[in-house]
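DM between two lab members

TW: hey, do you still have the Succinate-semialdehyde dehydrogenase/glutarate-semialdehyde dehydrogenase entry open?
JB: yeah, one sec
JB: this one, 480 aa:
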Amino acid sequence: MDMFIDGAFVPALTGARQSVTNPATGDVIDTVPTGTAEDADRAIAAAERAFEAWKRTPVAERARLQKAAAKLMRAEAQAIGRTLTLELGRPLAAAITEIERSADLLDVYAEEGLRLTAEMPLTSVAGEKMLVTREPVGVVLAITPFNYPITLLTFKLGAALIAGCTMVAKPAEDTPLSTLMLADLFHRAGFPAGVFNVVTGRGTGIGKAMIEHPVPRKIAFTGGTAAGKAIAAAAVQTMKRLTLELGGQSPAIVCSDADLDTAAAAIARHGFANSGQFCYRVNRCYVERAVYEDFLARLKAHVDKLKVGDGFDASCAMGPLVNEKIYRNSERQSDDAREKGARILTGGQRLTGGLYDGGWFFPPTLIADADHSMLVMTEETFGPVLGIMPFEDRREALKLANQTRYGLAGFVFSENLATALTLAEGIEAGSVWVNNIHRSSHTMPFGGMKESGFGREKGRFGIEAYLEYKSIYLSYKEGL
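TW: and the structure you got?
JB:
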């Protein structure tokens, strides 16, 4: 596939291309252009031209187009989902669900956009009025990771477009194909040329050029903390607005009065979804000593049922990790914990033989008796490895949960509502789940504290991040 710029698929100006591989087999499934600064410039120029008309398009018309795109996404969820499974390895049913839920978010953003208002303070001063209005920031750059390429783009795209911004998106090198399909879909839904553009290439090439370009007024980035810091440092040179959703090392606290079956099922489901490749997954668990061994047994029973295999096998709950770099981190954290005396309850070594020899397959791994000397309890894993540590005192558990530079999410299990709420309020994170783990709501703000980034996405909170406040002072002569 080619890049999508100004309403058409186009190659890189140099003609250079890079491969997209299937992580389950290692086979090349397609190629995409290796873009350069010149390609970034023509995409941004297209978005800048389109912005002049798009910002004046009535919000009702923007909402109509966005809903049309959402409807088309649902109609083509199977096709985009199959491509996503090929490039990411995630089980097909989950890939299709990603497309459908992303369409739902587009609808939410469309409805929230229709509810945006300006303000007029009631000063009662004769011949004077003050207006507080909001305008779209301008051209937006969206830089997204491989793990949920459509969802995490839609977080940004749906908010930016309904606010009146135009966008240039750069997907991850591992998963560009589904994003390119989405750009074509938006064009077919009726969005004007240049409103949504997608460029491909490497971060050190086209990504750097995009960030340093003087025209875009905002960068929305989801990815690693180190990369986010570098983007923020570069963005300040042109005072670009930023929304950064960065790394996570999310804790779960399981108290002795918790419903252990519910807690074990929720943590197994959430900790190993998408092979653990997302930043607000349960990464580490603190379990009260009185129920520690009981909880470990229940958790292991759930995890042992998770079958790992090819994404097109409907019986599989987990696919491969997306590439060798991501795989090596799970291996490194498991080896580190083993060497420091932890118990590996299940998993811990690469899966081999047959299908497994062709891709980066790592089993769901439970590391018991972990502590904060181990990488699994202190560093982001981004893989199917979960550290578990006992605690004696709930204040100690809260202190350990917050002993991290990250603050994206947290999880609490206690049937005592006072205990649960006290712990939930005490966890330093942007989102906290209590007594179960549901999908994050499209209407709730999502984002992190500390080095997990800043800014919020989803719902009206997400749209507001793409608007600038403007104060207008009006003087007039009274008359009848």
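TW: got it. The longest strand covers residues 128-136. The chain has a mean pLDDT of 97.
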